[in-house]
Write a structure and sequence with these properties.
Blueprint (H helix, E strand, L loop, with lengths): L1 H6 L21 H26 L6 H8 L18
């Protein structure tokens, strides 16, 4: 039988030792969960900063003036000082 297998290019393999699953996992579930939360928070923060950095919108009237070299006719205030109550 070994000669027939050798003619077809099939090699006989013998298992020297049976595989054994480890008794305890290498990392605990809490460690993996904590690492996942930290990685997700870092990736989310990096994505937010990258989106803000790459956003081509004008943020101030000075940006419009510098880029378009045209005067700004009107702009909305950045913060609301007082609120009008009805």
């Amino acid at each position: 039988m070994a000669d027939a297998l050798d003619q077809r290019g099939i090699v006989n393999v013998a298992i020297a030792q049976q595989p054994v699953a480890p008794a305890l996992p290498v990392l605990s579930a809490w460690t993996v969960l904590l690492a996942g939360f930290v990685a997700a928070g870092a990736a989310g923060t990096a994505a937010a900063f990258a989106a803000d950095y790459l956003d081509p919108a004008f943020r101030t009237p000075d940006d419009v003036l510098a880029y378009l070299e045209a005067p700004v006719l009107a702009s909305l205030p950045r913060g609301v000082q007082g609120r009008i109550s009805a």
